[in-house]
Design brief:
Largest sheet: 8 strands, parallel
Order of helices and strands: EHHHEHHEHHEHHEEHHHEEEEHEHEEEH
Bound molecules: 6-O-phosphono-beta-D-glucopyranose
Helix content: 25-40%
CATH topology: TIM Barrel
Structural class: alpha/beta
CATH class: Alpha Beta
Number of domains: 1
Strand order of the largest sheet: 5-4-3-2-1-12-11-7
């Protein structure tokens, strides 16, 4: 159903865009910042390193001014744990605090609401050495870090996101350079879900702390949610879709919102001897936490069919959005109704609406889009232009579907696509660009690092000025 009359976007809708610290800032060991897991990981051949990125650390004012020129109402960025606490715990790096103070103040100067992600794929290397999320102490490390953030920035930051894409950390951690599996581990699934459990508890405690310390602030999770379709109407395929929906999506939101483990996932973990161990108080901590909204990243839907018990895991998992497989549970299926991006991700704007509807009916909370967007090869012309009609088309279609979802009755807080400015992809280097602002550098050649407005920049400016009417 396409509505005949669509409801308008809310008055205070957060039109903006997103970035993450380790992908955009550069200056990765400057001004007292400690290394994160991203800085010490082996960089695969053909991938740019993370020392410079978009050099946002040194271009911050210029970048925020460009966002303001587009008319941004919000800017979602993450705070690098190791810029604040170089070793992950203990001593605070004042220069790190100063940088984010300046960034927050710069946003507020232009009336841009800072939306802060507390953790985006960048575990302090010093904490990795202590067992990372596998160490039960990781819960307290995160809560202590949260306290430092709330104390220093809570007077101005009103919107907080806990852990970016915890579900992707758990499902495809190695692809995005995170989640450590100790050598010699004999039950990897159990280890992964134990780490996942620590993150769930850490998130719950951080939400409670936020509400205690900052009663006016709002906090929510930020998983990557893709509704999962069955490949056919065969009942077995429907069960497979429910399995993957539970493992990929609902585990994270059922826990964040209701404080309970999703039953399908729990039974799957039981079958594989992989249920996590609860520390005393965990259950209560998870029940006590209540998010104010759900932040979520959406790139596309997923489609699966039934998988036999013999199907093996190995050859399947590629990255966040590509098909995967789990013996006896589900098997990725290429949806023939969808086209793909140049990087192989399916494009499904209508699936965006379907995903929003599903979340709305399961959780009844306001929803904030924290990522969405098109990764593509962009070209800077000799006269300093970037013609990216493909990106405009992608965003236009997705925004139109948000309006359909609003008309369906979903409460939408904002749209913060990926990414405000070109930055380094999780595993495809600089060549896969998402920004409204082009950064003049290549994979390895640092270029001038000058900023250029892409065609999508001017288009998005018009969209924001018309509050989503002029697409
Ligand atoms: C999300 C992440 O998975 O997708 C971002 O939160 C990431 O960090 C974005 O960059 C796009 O993915 P990729 O792999 O194309 O960089």
């Amino acid at each position: 159903m396409k509505h005949k009359t669509r409801k308008p976007f809310p008055e205070n809708f957060f039109w903006g865009a997103s970035t993450s610290a380790y992908q955009v800032e550069g200056a990765n060991l400057e001004d007292g910042k400690g290394p994160s897991c991203q800085d010490v990981k082996e960089v695969p051949e053909g991938t740019s390193d993370l020392t410079v990125c978009a050099d946002h650390y040194h271009h911050m004012k210029e970048d925020v001014a460009l966002m303001a020129e587009m008319g941004f109402k919000s800017y979602r960025f993450s705070i690098a744990w190791t810029r604040i606490l170089p070793k992950g715990t203990g001593e605070i790096n004042q220069k790190g605090i100063d940088f984010y103070n300046e960034l927050i103040d710069e946003c507020l100067k232009y009336g841009i609401e800072p939306i802060v992600t507390m953790f985006h794929f960048d575990m302090p290397a010093a904490l990795d050495e202590r067992g990372s999320w596998g160490n039960p102490d990781s819960v307290q490390w995160f809560v202590d870090f949260a306290r430092v953030l709330f104390e220093n920035f809570g007077d101005r930051v009103k919107y907080w996101l806990t852990i970016n894409e915890q579900n992707m950390l758990t499902l495809v951690g190695p692809v995005i350079g995170t989640l450590m599996i100790p050598e010699g581990c004999t039950n990897v699934l159990k280890e992964v879900y134990q780490q996942n459990h620590h993150m769930l508890v850490a998130q719950a405690k951080a939400m409670v702390l936020c509400h205690q310390m900052l009663p006016e602030a709002k906090i929510g999770p930020a998983p990557n949610i893709s509704l999962v379709y069955p490949a056919t109407c065969k009942p077995e395929d429907v069960i497979a879709a429910q399995n993957f929906n539970a493992i990929r999506n609902w585990l994270y939101l059922d826990m964040a919102v209701y404080g309970i483990y999703n039953a399908i996932v729990w039974s799957y973990l039981e079958e594989n001897d992989a249920t996590p161990t609860f520390a005393p108080g965990d259950e209560e901590a998870m029940k006590n936490a209540h998010p104010d909204f759900i932040g979520f990243n959406y790139y596309n839907t997923a489609t699966v069919e039934a998988a036999s018990d013999e199907e093996v895991l190995a050859d399947a998992v590629a990255d966040q959005q590509s098909g995967s497989i789990e013996a006896g549970m589900y098997k990725g299926f290429r949806n023939p109704n969808l086209v793909t991006t140049e990087f192989g991700w399916e494009i499904d704007p209508v699936g965006f609406r379907a995903t929003i509807r599903e979340m709305d009916s399961r959780y009844h909370l306001p929803l904030l889009v924290t990522e969405n967007g098109l990764g593509a090869y962009d070209t800077l012309t000799e006269d300093g232009k970037v013609h990216d009609p493909y990106r405009i088309e992608y965003l236009r279609q997705h925004i139109a579907q948000i309006q359909e979802a609003i008309t369906d009755g979903a409460q939408m807080l904002g749209y913060n696509p990926w990414s405000a400015i070109d930055l380094i992809s999780t595993h495809e280097g600089m060549k896969k660009r998402y920004g409204f602002i082009y950064v003049d550098r290549d994979e390895f050649d640092l270029g001038t690092l000058n900023r250029y407005r892409k065609d999508s920049f001017y288009w998005y400016k018009k969209v924001i000025a018309s509050n989503g009417e002029d697409l």
